[in-house]
């Protein structure tokens, strides 16, 4: 849902006197997140006065709130103060006394896609929460930045806007803060919204920005966070009149590609430890009811055993524990009110999430219905005594994966992330997968439960983030920058929303703020070349010319002839995407999961450049569980393909075969190629790409 706001309060601003006792600085940064800290530091480094104010008592947001298994993407794209943060993390762990619960030599050094400790570049990307928080505190202290904590913006009447400029902001405590430029570094975008800037909550329909991966994604099953076996959603199995189990929606899920107001799930990134001397047992939350987890019990009963898949290791025998599987730490569907909710409503949502997640861990560790091996293993884990000491070992920050997103001068979309659009005013780079967690849990027409919304599409190569996505429309506010709730579609934000990127954008936003002050111009009028010169001087990475890198997929443009990926085809039935078996073309390949009850088809309509004979090839990943009789229909002819045999045509980039020649066929103007699972009842059917090569 898009919010086009003209608050009544803004019409009365001219009558509000400015307080003489206001805290004043050139730049007011609202939000104590990682982006907020870095923005404040950059302003100070540019010799301007700055105040950091926000509702949190702790600095760093998610980076100090449990997310120590950094979602970094291509680390070469992380520069400036963000890289300095990870260098300081490396400096800490380079000291022997940093290793309190294990020897450094015993630490596996496993990171997300690369080593945790990069000694060559003197950076470290995996860390404990308290270490990150101390780095942020050190940065603030070194630059003598004034910080106001536990100060909550008065969202109703506390933002004064005159002639398109914020003149001052007030918090609920009565404090007033006045600056020349303002930066909203919150995860919620509260200052942005209160200033009357347009924003969106939820998923846009695909046709809004001509995207593919936005909107409702019913039937798209990326990752492994879905029900791969039929699970009954009813209290009495098979009896809808008995009612629905907790945490399952009875609303229809919507139609593929349509927009909705739903928000991807939140959780707490728990830090756990298996060191007995440092371990607190999982507490039983107030109001705990084992019936809340009946759906998980049924998942266990169906044979699921991957409960520890996302216990990602961080130093000193701890974890950054994230969601994994069909029923896990993500509290699906319980956060829809959060983005626009009052402070009280948000507190209620956070409390409910905390109770749910604590109850989940308590259930697994204690309920007699849990498989014995899983329960015995879970009992070895608990909350760390030396993390979040003022909160019983529990993270102080809920993982707000997405809330409001500004509708600014430029809206980042999947086309920007995929390199289809050329961004010419780069203020930083993203490279992580366009990633959305599940958005809803619903009942399918066949009476089983399923999750929806989990997406993972790799952009292929790092992409530029537009300066226009940090600034509102000029008609709405001329002295505000927004580096967290940036102007972006839902699916593009799925890649941008990573902590290193937030820090990068925080630095760039502060740089633009200072330069616009120097020139006494609106932030929208800042000459990009002037901004770029300063960002380059401060070691920000604004472009990257490295190779195409996907989920192991191969760039379709590198093959001869005409190549059309599965993403270019019309699909019907029930296909699941995967990238687990290599090689394949593009971002992913499709499979029917062995489901023969549903007739599933993929059809390409290809415009041939010249009438004649063409060799038709298909790409698939061979495996012994594949079908031996996959029907490939080319115009009116059908050929059966044995997908247990490896394709014979090889690519220069792989030693394995990737293309299988189906045959040579005459085409006039168009070619219709269809792959289905019709009568392919002896295994899985794979669909990846087609290739047409003219036969001379």
TrEMBL record:
GO molecular-function annotation terms? 4 iron, 4 sulfur cluster binding; metal ion binding; oxidoreductase activity; xanthan lyase activity
The answer to whether keyword Iron applies is: yes
User: Sorted alphabetically, which InterPro entries does this protein's record hold?
Assistant: CBD-like_Golvesin-Xly (IPR033803), FAD/NAD-bd_sf (IPR036188), HdrA-like (IPR039650)
Q: What is its EC number?
A: 4.2.2.12
Domain of life of the source: Bacteria
Name the top EC class.
Answer: lyase
Span of the secretion signal?
Answer: 1-22
> Which keywords does the record carry?
4Fe-4S, Iron, Iron-sulfur, Lyase, Metal-binding, Oxidoreductase, Signal
PROSITE patterns, per the entry? PROKAR_LIPOPROTEIN
Give all residue intervals belonging to the Golvesin/Xly CBD-like domain.
565-693
**What name goes with this protein?**
Xanthan lyase
Organism of this sequence: Stieleria marina
């Amino acid at each position: 849902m898009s919010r086009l706001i003209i608050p009544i309060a803004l019409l009365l601003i001219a009558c509000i006197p400015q307080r003489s006792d206001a805290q004043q600085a050139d730049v007011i940064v609202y939000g104590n997140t990682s982006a907020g800290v870095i923005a404040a530091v950059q302003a100070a480094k540019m010799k301007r006065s700055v105040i950091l104010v926000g509702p949190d008592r702790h600095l760093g947001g998610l980076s100090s709130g449990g997310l120590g298994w950094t979602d970094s993407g291509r680390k070469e794209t992380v520069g400036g103060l963000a890289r300095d943060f990870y260098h300081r993390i490396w400096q800490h762990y380079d000291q022997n006394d940093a290793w309190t619960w294990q020897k450094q030599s015993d630490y596996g050094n496993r990171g997300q896609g690369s080593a945790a400790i990069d000694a060559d570049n003197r950076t470290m990307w995996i860390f404990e929460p308290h270490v990150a928080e101390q780095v942020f505190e050190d940065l603030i202290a070194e630059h003598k930045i004034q910080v106001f904590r536990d100060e909550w913006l008065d969202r109703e009447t506390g933002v004064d806007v005159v002639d398109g400029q914020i003149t001052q902001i007030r918090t609920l405590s009565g404090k007033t803060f006045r600056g020349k430029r303002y930066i909203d570094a919150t995860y919620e975008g509260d200052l942005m919204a209160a200033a009357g800037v347009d924003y969106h909550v939820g998923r846009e329909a695909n046709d809004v920005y001509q995207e593919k991966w936005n909107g409702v994604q019913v039937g798209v099953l990326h990752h492994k966070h879905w029900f791969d076996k039929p699970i009954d959603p009813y209290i009495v199995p098979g009896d809808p009149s008995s009612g629905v189990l907790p945490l399952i929606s009875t609303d229809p899920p919507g139609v593929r590609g349509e927009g909705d107001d739903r928000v991807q799930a939140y959780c707490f990134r728990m830090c756990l430890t298996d060191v007995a001397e440092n371990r607190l047992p999982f507490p039983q939350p107030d109001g705990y009811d084992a019936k809340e987890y009946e759906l998980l019990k049924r998942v266990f009963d169906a044979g699921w055993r991957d409960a520890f898949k996302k216990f990602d290791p961080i130093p000193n025998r701890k974890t950054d524990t994230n969601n994994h599987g069909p029923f896990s730490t993500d509290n699906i569907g319980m956060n829809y009110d959060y983005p626009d909710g009052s402070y009280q409503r948000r507190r209620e949502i956070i409390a409910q999430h905390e109770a749910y997640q604590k109850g989940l861990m308590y259930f697994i560790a204690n309920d007699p219905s849990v498989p014995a091996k899983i329960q015995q293993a879970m009992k070895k884990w608990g909350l760390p005594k030396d993390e979040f000491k003022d909160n019983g070992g529990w993270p102080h920050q809920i993982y707000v994966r997405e809330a409001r997103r500004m509708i600014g001068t430029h809206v980042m979309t999947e086309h920007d992330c995929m390199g289809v659009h050329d961004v010419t005013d780069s203020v930083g780079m993203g490279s992580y997968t366009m990633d959305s967690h599940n958005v809803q849990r619903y009942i399918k027409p066949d009476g089983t439960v399923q999750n929806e919304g989990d997406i993972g599409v790799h952009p292929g190569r790092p992409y530029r983030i537009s300066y226009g996505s940090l600034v509102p429309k000029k008609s709405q506010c001329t002295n505000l920058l927004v580096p967290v709730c940036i102007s972006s579609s839902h699916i593009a934000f799925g890649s941008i929303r990573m902590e290193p990127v937030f820090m990068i954008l925080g630095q760039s936003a502060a740089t633009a703020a200072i330069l616009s002050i120097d020139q006494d111009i609106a932030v929208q009028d800042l000459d990009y070349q002037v901004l770029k010169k300063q960002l380059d001087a401060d070691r920000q990475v604004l472009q990257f010319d490295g190779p195409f890198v996907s989920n192991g997929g191969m760039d379709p443009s590198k093959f001869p002839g005409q190549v059309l990926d599965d993403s270019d085809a019309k699909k019907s039935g029930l296909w699941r995407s995967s990238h687990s078996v290599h090689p394949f073309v593009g971002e992913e390949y499709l499979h029917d999961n062995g489901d023969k009850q549903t007739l599933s088809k993929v059809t390409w309509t290809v415009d041939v450049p010249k009438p004649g004979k063409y060799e038709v090839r298909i790409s698939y990943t061979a495996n012994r569980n594949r079908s031996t009789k996959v029907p490939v229909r080319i115009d009116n002819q059908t050929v059966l393909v044995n997908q247990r045999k490896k394709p014979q045509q090889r690519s220069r980039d792989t030693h394995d075969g990737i293309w299988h020649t189906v045959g040579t066929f005459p085409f006039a103007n168009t070619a219709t190629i269809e792959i289905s699972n019709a009568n392919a009842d002896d295994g899985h059917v794979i669909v990846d790409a087609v290739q047409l090569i003219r036969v001379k």
